[in-house]
Amino acid sequence: MPIWGGFVAGVKRYFPFALAQSIKNEFNDYTTKKLLGWGTCEIEEILELPSSFSVLVGHAYGAPSKSKLDGFIAPNVENFLLKNTHNIQNIIFTGDVFSVPDSSKWNNLFKKFGPAKIYVAPGNHDFLRPDSKEIFSQNKFIRKDFPFDLSFGDLSVVVDDSITSNWRAGENLKLFLKTIIADDIFIARHNMPISQLLPYANSNAGNPDITTVNDFIQDFSKKQNFTWIMGDGGAFERLPRLTCNSFENHRFIVNGIGEVKNDTVLILYNGNIFSHIIR
Asked: 130 pLDDT exceeds 80?
């Protein structure tokens, strides 16, 4: 991959970067599809929301090009949450909640959507800079004992900190997952845990050194099903709103907000996961 990265860096001088990135993504998509046992999966879309559900939102601040110093979460996300505030039981933000975090924004988030229980799997914007990390750590509303498990009926959802572990599935997470006896486990985090998903990432902030899916799955039980949900996607129009790939007993869902047509959030309801387009 270093040779390919050098090629992309070279052509950036002569071609639009978006085009170069597109070529790189197509190359990675091709090599990904050639991987034995790797497949795509479908997340069923839900049009009419139930009276009680939980929601996962990735990259909630939206498009980097529209972000401002005093910006809150993306307007379409804010409108969706406000419209459904009495029906949402839990909100899990899978990282990059604000472009530029501060204490007043965090407090406003919990106050505005307070009827729901709010959890945060931190992203680089939330946690990577010394100032944002301090703000995050000192906020009394944010649960920070990562990884931790949430039970939504028959569904077990683990909220993970992928920033401290530099994108990897850290040893703490691996040990924690071994204590869960559920047949189906969902892990909500910000960063991609395997190299095959890098083409869908908004950025490579944190300089990830992550393994391939073949090696990754060796550390997990073969008797349980794992669904990995990453919020570091969709920030740019060139990226998909939602992707789902599978390998043996693992699913990898990448999803995030970019303030473009068909922005999508994930709905947890009745033990299942659904996609829902927000306006």
From this structure: yes
